Amino acid sequence: MKYLKTFIAMIVLFALLPSSSSASEKGEDVYAERMEFYKTIETVTLVPWYYIAAVDQYERNIRGVRRDLPKAEGLSGVYFEPMKWSGPLNPNQEDDNPMSITLFNGVGIDGNGDGKALRTDDFDALMTMATYLQSYGSDDDNLKIALWNYYKRDKTVSIIAEIAKLYKHFGRLNLTAHSFPVPLRSRHSYRNTWGDARGWGGRRIHEGTDIFANYGVPVMATCYGIVEMKGWNRYGGWRVGIRDINNTYHYYAHLSGFSKDLKVGQIVEPGTVIGGVGSSGYGPPGTSGKFPPHLHYGMYKDNGYTEWSFDPYPHLRLWERQMRSKR
Ligand SMILES: [Zn+2]
């Protein structure tokens, strides 16, 4: 009888949550597999797993938004141009022979020991990246120098270092949870105003969603991330910028002030209070009250060269719905 009950309960459970449960299980498997993969490479190269994971995640993110690069499909997101992998003067751009690749100054190595240095093999690609990093040393400063020499872009180096810091702090790869930026119980309202002319000054289109709420209502981080920016700007007033590991920069403007002790470089989680809803902006530091209090919330992505905004409205709706159903 007991077994029958369990059996029925299981059938009901599977009938209720067929796609969502299997999808999340699959997701967790990928994280576990990747973690094993990174730790193995750490053992061989001595480059900390969270740095290997961060470069891998950064490359996966970039491939997700760039049309000139193939989408990341395997366990690893690292991508090498054929010419870089095989060597600039190598007549065979798809060369997978470790000896001739080395001869032509290519970077590709045989990571998994099968005798081939295969550009499309997850292990070979990630071992090649880790071996390159390790050639500079395995401490924070030297890894940053290695990254700068590889990407030649300060912003990319700081983004990867931030992802590494988050992985190290939380000790896991799954940092994708989100929450709504103001308490659900607060009286708030927002509409889809993406692309509208700005209500208050400026010639650019409105790059975000305005959430109207009372002055001082807590504003919370919507993601796991790092506070990258905190300060005053003529238009945004008191504002905070937080970057997550999935290539999104979250921008909070017109705050009444910042929460005590909030500082640049701080790690936040979904729900961490960062400040309060306000009406700061449109003047020198301290200017306030030129418009009704609201949180201006913006989202931006980076493709390795430049950053652009996208519409946060559907995400806000989703996070709000998810939080309501959790209660
Ligand atoms: Zn706004």
Topology:
Layout: H1 2-16, H2 18-45, H3 49-65, H4 82-86, H5 98-103, H6 122-134, H7 140-151, H8 154-170, E1 188-189, E2 209-213, E3 218-220, E4 225-233, E5 237-243, E6 249-258, E7 267-268, E8 273-277, E9 294-302, E10 307-310, H9 313-326
Antiparallel strand pairs: 1-2, 2-9, 3-8, 4-5, 4-7, 5-6, 6-8, 6-9, 9-10
Helix pairs in contact: 2-3, 2-6, 3-8, 7-8
Rounded Rg: 23 Å
CATH topology of the largest domain: the name is Glucose Permease (Domain IIA)
Q: What amount of the residues lies in strands?
A: 15-25%
Ligand roster: zinc ion
The helix content, as a percent range, equals 25-40%
| Number of E strands | 10
Give me the CATH architecture of the largest domain, please: Distorted Sandwich
Rounded average pLDDT: 90
Per CATH, the superfamily of the largest domain is: Glucose Permease (Domain IIA)
| Major sheet summary line | 10 strands, antiparallel
What's the domain count? 2
CATH class of the largest domain: Mainly Beta
Structure annotation, total helices? 9
Structural class: alpha+beta
InterPro entries: Cell_wall_metabolism_enzyme (IPR050570), Dup_hybrid_motif (IPR011055), M23ase_b-sheet_dom (IPR016047)
GO molecular function, one term: metalloendopeptidase activity
Pfam family, one: Peptidase_M23
Protein name: Murein DD-endopeptidase MepM/ murein hydrolase activator NlpD
